[in-house]
Amino acid sequence: MEKAKSIKEIARLAGVSTATVSRVINQNGRFSKETEERVLRVIRQNDYTPNMSAKGLRTSRTRVIGVVVPDITNPHFANVVLHLEMEFTRRGYSCLICNTNESSSLEKKHIRSLTAQNVSGIVLISSTRNYTELDSLPVVYVDRPSRSEKERGEGVMIESDNTQGGYLATRELLGAGCRHILILKCLGNDSNQLARYRGFQRAIGEAGVEEEEALRINLDAVSIDGARKAVADLLDGGVAFDGIMSTTDTMAAGAVIALREHGLSVPRDVLVTGFDDCQLAEACGPGLTSVHQDVAEMSRLATELLFQMMRGERPERSHYRLPVTLTVRKSTRR
Amino acid sequence: MEKAKSIKEIARLAGVSTATVSRVINQNGRFSKETEERVLRVIRQNDYTPNMSAKGLRTSRTRVIGVVVPDITNPHFANVVLHLEMEFTRRGYSCLICNTNESSSLEKKHIRSLTAQNVSGIVLISSTRNYTELDSLPVVYVDRPSRSEKERGEGVMIESDNTQGGYLATRELLGAGCRHILILKCLGNDSNQLARYRGFQRAIGEAGVEEEEALRINLDAVSIDGARKAVADLLDGGVAFDGIMSTTDTMAAGAVIALREHGLSVPRDVLVTGFDDCQLAEACGPGLTSVHQDVAEMSRLATELLFQMMRGERPERSHYRLPVTLTVRKSTRR
DNA sequence: ATGAAAGCGCTAACAC
DNA sequence: GTGTTAGCGCTTTCAT
Fold first, then answer.
1. Which residues in chain A have Cβ-Cβ distances shorter than 8 Å to B224?
2. Mean pLDDT along residues B156-165
3. Collapsing DSSP states into helix, strand and coil, what is residue B95?
4. pLDDT value of position A128
5. pLDDT tens per residue across span B259-282
6. Digit-coded pLDDT (tens) for B181-195
7. Residue limits of the HTH lacI-type domain (chains A, B) (predicted)?
8. Protein residue nearest nucleotide D9, by CA to C1'
9. Which residues, 6 or more positions from B105, have their beta carbon under 8 angstroms from its beta carbon?
10. Long-range contacts of A74-78 (CB under 8 A, 24+ apart)
11. Is B72 in contact with A52 (Cβ distance < 8 A)?
12. Mutation site, B77, B117, B329, interface A, largest A CB count within 10 A
C-alpha cells in the first residue's frame, strides 16, 4: 500500500482547489456540474478515500459510533450488536465495540476512550450508570434501568417490555396447569431481571397463586452450569414444582439438563420457559418456549434515534418500550 | 460536556511547552522528573485525554484495530471477538468491528473503510481473499484458507488444527462402534469445513470403513433448522446410520432434534459429534461431544503477532496451527 | 462557482 | 531538558 493519496493530490489532478474537492465530496454545493463530474472521475480513477483522522480532527465527528455492551458472548447482545452494526454500515458509519464484563470501572474507561476518539455517538447497552459527562454527545441507552426524567439527562432509552415478557411466560405456564412455579433469575445490577420477575408476580397474583419462598433461585451469574447445579440441589432437597420460569434462555437450559438428569421429563413432568428466544431455546431439550424480543426493530430504532440526535434534532420521546411476543415450543405443551 | 481541553491548555497550566507535555504523555524521555510530575498532575486535575483524531492524523496510527468477521452471531466468532477485544483493551487499543455476512463485496468495503480510518492493524477472520492493498498494514488472518507462501503476501495466519479436529471427532465415533457415519457439513467458501471433512476421511480410512455417498449432507448455510430438515429427510428416506459427525455445533443440534423427532435416542441409537464446543453443545440433547478450539490462546497469539508487526518486527513464522481437543459428553457415550 | 488560507490537536525534527 | 515550529489532511470562512 503506497502512501494514501490526499485531497491535495486530487485537487491538483482535477485542476481545482482542495476546497472544491471537499465541497464535491460532501455535496456542500457551490460547484458546477462539470467540475463535479471531473472531480468525481479523478477520485474514482485514483481510488481515493478521505482520511478520517483529518476529517475527525477538523469536524470533531468521525463517522464512528461506540457500542458499549456487557458481554458480546451473550447471544442476545451479539444479536443486537450485529443489527446495530448493519444499520451503521448502511449509513456509512463504523462500529467501535466495547465489552464491559459488567465492570463499571471498565465501562467508565471505555466511555472516556470513546469521547477521546470523537465518536459521533454512543449506544450504551445495559449500563448501570448515567453519564452526565456525555450530555452533549448523542447517546441511546438500550436495556438500561429506568430512571426519573430528571436523572436521565439528555439520553434516550429503549427497552423491551420485560415485565410483559415475564407475564406472558408465566401465563403460559399457568394456562397449562402449573401451580408451583420455580422462578429462576439472576441477581446483579440488571434491572431487566427484576422487571421480568415483576411480570411473573403479576401473573401468579392474577391467577390467585401464592408465591413460594422455596421456589425462588437467585444466581450470582448467568450460566448453564450454575443453573443446572442450583436446580439439581432443589430437586435433591425434595422440593416439588411443576413449572420453571427462567429469566434467560441460558439458565433455562441448565434447568432442563438438571431435570433430565433427575429422570424428569419436559414437558410431561415440568414445564419450562426461557427468555430471549436465542438458538439455545431452539436446540434445548424438546424446544424451549421463550420470550422473543424484537432485536431488529430495537436496533433500527436505536440507530434512527441516534442519528436524529447526531443531526441535532430532539427525538419525540425519551423512552421507548418495545412489545415482546412469546415463541411457544414444546417445553410448555404436553 | 464542555469543549475538551487540548494539549496547549495543559502546557499553559503546567508552565511548559506542548512538546514537553507530549513527551511526558508518550514517555519519550527528555524531561526531568519534576516536570513529569507537574505535567501529570495537571493532566489528572483537568481530566485531560489526548484527542485521538489529531494523534491519528499526525502519526497515521490510531490505537484502533479493525476486526473483520463473517457474523458475530456465530458463537465461535463472538467468542473470538470477545477475547480479541479484551486483549486490545489491556493494551490501550480499541476494536472496530465489521460483519461481512459472508459477502466479499461488503468485506472489501470494510477493508477500505478501515484503511481510510488509519487503523493500526487488522484481524481478518475467515476471509476469502488476500488483500495485497494491505501489504504495508499489519494484518493477521484467522481461520483463513491456506495459501501458498507466494500468494499470501505479508500477512500472518492462525488457525485451529481443523483436520485434526475432524479426525478426533470421527475416531470417537469409530471407537464407540459406529460404522455408518453421516457427515454433516456446509458448502461455501469456508475452508475449515473442508479440513474437518478431510479429518473425517482420514479417520474412517484408517479404520477401514468405506465412505458412503448417501451419508453425506452438504448444506448451503449453517442453521439448526436446515440441518434438522436435511437429517429428517434422510431418515424419512429410510437411510440408516449409527453416527453423525457434524462440522459445527449448530448443525449437530439440528441433527439431534431430527433424531428425537423420529423417535431415535442419542446416544443409544445414534452417536453425534459437533465442532466448536459452544454453549449449544453443552445444552443440546444429552450434551454434545464437540471439538474444542482454544479461542483464548488463538486471540492472545493473534494480538501478540499483530503488535509485533505494528512495532515493525517480523514474526518468526507466518503460519500457526493451534492444537484442538475433544470435549467428550454423553452424545458419544452409551 | 471557485480559490486562498487559517487552523483543528498533536508529534517530531531541530535548535539551544 | 526544554522550547519553537512545521505540517499531517481536511473543512470552512472570506474574498472574489
1. 279, 282-283
2. 96
3. strand
4. 74
5. 999 999 999 999 999 999 999 999
6. 999 999 876 788 999
7. 5-59
8. A54
9. none
10. A74/A222, A74/A250, A75/A249, A75/A276, A75/A278, A75/A279, A75/A280, A75/B73, A75/B75, A75/B78, A75/B279, A76/A276, A76/A278, A76/A293, A76/A295, A77/A125, A77/A126, A78/B72, A78/B73, A78/B75, A78/B78
11. no
12. B117
Contact B75, A75 (CB under 8 A): yes
Residue in the block written with cell 436505536: A302
Sign of CA dihedral B91, B96, B100, B104: negative
pLDDT greater than 80 at residue B152: no
Cell numbers of A196, please? 421480568
Cα separations (Å) of A20 from A33, A37, A41, A55, A59? Answer: 12, 12, 14, 15, 17
DSSP classification of residue B4: -
Select the residue from A52, A251, A259 to test the B interface by mutation, using most B Cβ atoms within 10 A. A52
Residue A66, min C-alpha distance to chain B (Å):
9
Nucleotides of C under 7 A from a protein CB: 1-5, 7-13
Chain A residues lying within 8 Å of B95, measured CB to CB = 96-98
Q: Residue at minimal CA–C1' distance from C1?
A: A31
CB contact under 8 A, A1 and B117: no
Domains of chain A: 7-50 (1.10.260.40), 57-159+294-323 (3.40.50.2300), 162-293+326-332 (3.40.50.2300)
Q: Are A124 and A158 in contact (CB under 8 A)?
A: no
Sequence letter at residue A45: Q
Q: CA-CA distance, B45 to B41, in Å (whole number)?
A: 6
Would you list the DSSP string of B24-65? Answer: HHHT-S-S-HHHHHHHHHHHHHTT----HHHHHHHHS--SEE
Burial of B8 (0-12, 13-18, 19+ CB in 10 A): exposed
Amino acid at B29: G
Cβ atoms within 10 Å, residue B28 = 10
